[in-house]
Amino acid sequence: MRDGYSGPSDVPEAVALAQWANSVSAASGIDVADRLTYLEQRMQMQDDEIQLLKMALADVLKRLNISEEHQATNAKKGPAEKGTHT
């Protein structure tokens, strides 16, 4: 199947795909509506997970930026200003 709808020539291809999906679903004992519901739920869960990953990445980048700024500030200071750690 091509990307996008290019006109009537796509209709037979879409019908064939739908018929194939119905036959696969019928063979597995799951009807198309149930399969569609399952896939929609799965897509929502994946979307939620992506949002959590984005937030975690933003937090990591913020912490990394703070750490790099801290290191840059310490590098500008002389050894006497840093203090001694024993």
Describe the structure.
The chain is 79% helix and 0% strand. It is mainly α and 86 residues long.
H/I helix tally:
3
Report how far apart the termini are.
68 Å
Q: Approximately how much helix is present in the residues?
A: over 70%
Strand content: under 5%
Count of β-strands = 0
Largest sheet: none
Oligomerization state: single chain
Query: SSE order, as H and E?
Result: HHH
Estimate the mean pLDDT confidence.
Answer: 80
Uncertain stretches of 5 or more adjacent residues: none
Rg result: 28 Å
Shape field = rod-shaped
Q: Give me the secondary-structure category.
A: mainly alpha
Any idea how many domains?
1
SSE layout and pairings?
Blueprint: H1 10-28, H2 32-76, H3 79-82
Structural key phrases:
single chain; mainly alpha
Summarize the structure.
The chain is an all-alpha fold. 79% of the residues lie in helices and 0% in strands. It has helices at 10-28, 32-76, 79-82.
